[in-house]
Amino acid sequence: MRWTGCTALAAIASLSITAAQAVQAQPAASAQPTADKAAPAQPAAGAADAGAPDAASELPPGHPEVGQGLPSGHPPVGKPPAADAASRRASEQLTGLFDAPDDTVQEDRGLPPGVLVLTVQDADGNPVPRISVDVDIVQSSVAKGDSRERISRETDDAGTVRLENLAIAGGTSYGISVKRDGGTFSIPHFGLSAEAGKRAVLHIYDATPNVSGLMVGTQGIVYLQLKQDSISVEQLFQVFNLGRVAWLPNETFALPRDYKAFNKTEGMGEEMRFDEVKGTGVALRGTVSPGRHEGQFRWQVPLHNEERQTIRIELPPRIAQMRVMAEASKSMTLNVAGFPAAQRTQNRDGKKILITEMQGTRTEGGMKVIEITLGGLPTPGVGRWIALVLAGATVIGGAALNLVRRRDQDRGPDDEERRELLEARNALLDEFVELERARKRGDVGPKTYDRVRAALLDALARIVAMIEARPARGKAAGAREAAGALKADAAGSPRS
């Protein structure tokens, strides 16, 4: 997600109740992963980088190419050294934003192999004594699968726990977590080496479920792909907590009623996560500690076989900026209510996409819902109606033959045959409705429309006649009345 850092963070700060000034920093700088942390996932097909300018194109004239030596007197580049607690407090007083210290896991040559020393600190870097620490030990084996063990220890007066004689096998990893005020603060799983032990530092914070007074904001991406019979929707959120208090969300937001195939990114740990709520949609839960967090999930909605389809999606709290993208053919259109007109571009995989984005405002409290309309969607061709008419004729012929046989035996149609006739009638009525819609859209010409409509009406008339079949003279009269009623209704007010 390559949005300009100062714009994104300023948008987030503007949504919070406490005052905040513009921040001249990239979003990724707020919580860079350590060497033992996995890189964040990206949307499918390079969605997050779609439409982003190449980094080299933003360099001023005369600037050396990336990777070349710097000219004499040029300031050093790269991530600045970690700030100490005093400088972080001074920056917080100046900007109103909290610069969260990094959790770290580092090899220490002064520690023997198989030893892990953990220090638990608060937001200001002070040790937290006498607090329970959970160590999750996972052993992975191709033959036996995964086995898990959890042990608990308590920090000493210096906020430290020392674990010895730990396994250093390649399939063994260790995860650390501490609970405080209902929040869970953790370091993702890491392994130990055979050369030296490791030293870890985990920070924990005060926590609250009330977001109203917190410096929390969110950026979001919605990426849509057209499948054979559905629309795939992938959502990615980056949640920024720019204060020193962790947020404990339990926020549910709805997806369309006909959504299906919900799937979320695994490995989110015990902190912030998105859970499916059956019959409703998605819940944002867990712990949003100071820094940046990512969550990603996807789902599908069935295609309605119409030229336009609207998808309404509720959003989690404090959406400061939202981007919507859709893989699109030349005829497809993308419209998001309240957003600027979508622009055509391509992602890094060369796929053509439509893209639009908008920033939320403080007065509105961020975006609450988005309505996405895709136009120019492919619809079934004329051949489907011809095939269905032929299928209907087959059903009619078989039912008629059985009806004659049963009439010869002084018996009317049984329940099973009547059910088959009712199903055939309903299917043809549905296709009649779709034919009328296709005519209004201009998908079928007048000659094809007249031919298919006449065939549908004839098939419907026959089916209705057999459904309403009566003994002797009533049978023929009922057929004529049903056929006449259908034709009169179609000519005067077609279904739509």
General description of the model:
The chain has 6 helices and 22 strands. The protein starts with a helix and ends with a helix. Among the domains are: 85-204, Carboxypeptidase-like, regulatory domain (Immunoglobulin-like), CATH 2.60.40.1120; 216-375, Immunoglobulin-like (Sandwich), CATH 2.60.40; 413-468. The chain is 24% helix and 33% strand. The longest helix is centred in the C-terminal third of the chain and has 27 residues, at 415-441. The chain is an alpha+beta fold and 496 residues long. The strands form 5 sheets. Strands 10, 11, 14, 17, 18, 19, 20, 21 and 22 form a 9-stranded mixed sheet that branches. A 4-stranded mixed sheet has the order 1-8-2-5, with no helix packed on it. The protein has a 4-stranded antiparallel sheet with strand order 4-3-6-7, with no helix packed on it. It has helices spanning 5-15, 85-95, 383-408, 415-441, 446-467, 473-492, and strands at residues 104-108, 116-121, 132-141, 145-154, 160-163, 172-180, 183-190, 197-203, 207-208, 216-226, 230-241, 246-247, 250-254, 260-264, 273-277, 281-285, 291-302, 309-327, 333-336, 343-346, 352-359, 367-375.
End-to-end gap: 43 Å
Category from helices, strands and their pairing: alpha+beta
List SSEs in N-to-C order.
HHEEEEEEEEEEEEEEEEEEEEEEHHHH
Number of helices: 6
Low-confidence stretches: 1-42, 45-81, 470-480, 482-496
Largest sheet: 9 strands, mixed
Instruction: Examine the secondary-structure arrangement and name the CATH architecture of the domain at 216-375.
Output: Sandwich
Coarse morphology: elongated
Count of distinct strands: 22
The percentage of residues in β strands lies in 25-35%
CATH class of the domain at 216-375: Mainly Beta
Average pLDDT rating: 77
What fold name goes in the CATH topology slot of the domain at 216-375?
Immunoglobulin-like
Percentage of residues assigned to helices? 10-25%
Region (Disordered): 31-90, 473-496
Organism: Sorangium cellulosum (strain So ce56)
Signal peptide: 1-25
Protein name: Carboxypeptidase regulatory-like domain-containing protein
